Amino acid sequence: MIELQGLTKRYGEKLAVDGLTCTVRPGIVTGFLGPNGAGKSTTMRMMLDLDRPTHGTVLIDGQHYRQLKDPLRTVGALLDAKAMHGGRSAHNHLLCLAQSNGIPKARVREVLDTVGLASVAGKRSKGFSLGMGQRLGIAGALLGDPQILMFDEPVNGLDPEGIHWIRNLMKNLAAQGRTVFVSSHLMSEMALTADHLIVIGQGRLLADTSMADFIKQNSRSYVRLRSPEVERLLDVLAGAGVTAVTTEDGHLEVDGTEAAELGELAARHRLVLHELSPQQASLEEAFMQLTAESVEYHAHTAPPGAEAVGTAAGAEAVGAAAPPGGGAAPPGGGWGAGWQKKKGA
Ligand SMILES: Nc1ncnc2c1ncn2[C@@H]1O[C@H](COP(=O)(O)OP(=O)(O)OP(=O)(O)O)[C@@H](O)[C@H]1O
Fold this sequence. Notes:
32% helix, Alpha-Beta Plaits, 12 helices, binds adenosine-5'-triphosphate, Rossmann fold
């Protein structure tokens, strides 16, 4: 278990982490989300005593990190996959870690097998691809067989097979009763992996809730209906006191009434339905809705120097994607193009 109490970090003028109080519990995967610069890495560094809090505390199983007798056997972390001696082979890198932490040598071979690097164990890590470097970093985190695991952007650079592998690895580690804390900007992946979410924005706690509740609380859920007898359906709905909104493409959208109830109502009136589907927003939509106010870095929709003819054309020109399903768009820009600091932009 990891407990944060009023955790705060100031770098000069910048309040990077602002009074975070939350608990990361064992037995589940906890996702750590926040826009760029929200303070995720700083928080994780403070958890590992790599950065000193300005105020507040972090307790790892009830102790400060520096009080832990066998830190690597208690907490395994992947923070920066590039932070290793590139001249050493993967095997020697892990061996050094093992020897300096009293971990049996045999464990090196085991974790190399687990992460799929056994065949390149003798190769120097500076020749590794981004994904191989991530796997080696994950091997380092697993080396001490710790009960607590922290991964900062673990899927960065991994191929689809690798992403699938780390997802299952994290779920299995949690199922064994371990504490798994993971940050990622890949919302679709996070939605498949995490059971619980801690969301921060500009260093402050925005949400600490289950995945299902987070999506429910931060997005709209509704039922979509389509019928060849749309006018009669509207009358029937109105007669039952149900408000429906007609969309441009002729669908009806109904808030606040279950799909089953709507289906039964239609059946009672012998109405043909071509669609009756509950719609739940994605994690990405819910995340953007919640964090819209605390996004510090915004992308321009148009390439530098080019005046966009219209918003849509400008967005298309740089391949920026609007949030799916009409979720909250970032103020003043799309997503994915060259990041610009808001204050300077
Ligand atoms: N060593 C440092 N010195 C000064 N400012 C720092 C330092 N480390 C982080 N910051 C600032 O603290 C804020 C939080 O940074 P941090 O890297 O923790 O955010 P993050 O949520 O991990 O971001 P990202 O998603 O982009 O990785 C940022 O404004 C960053 O510029």
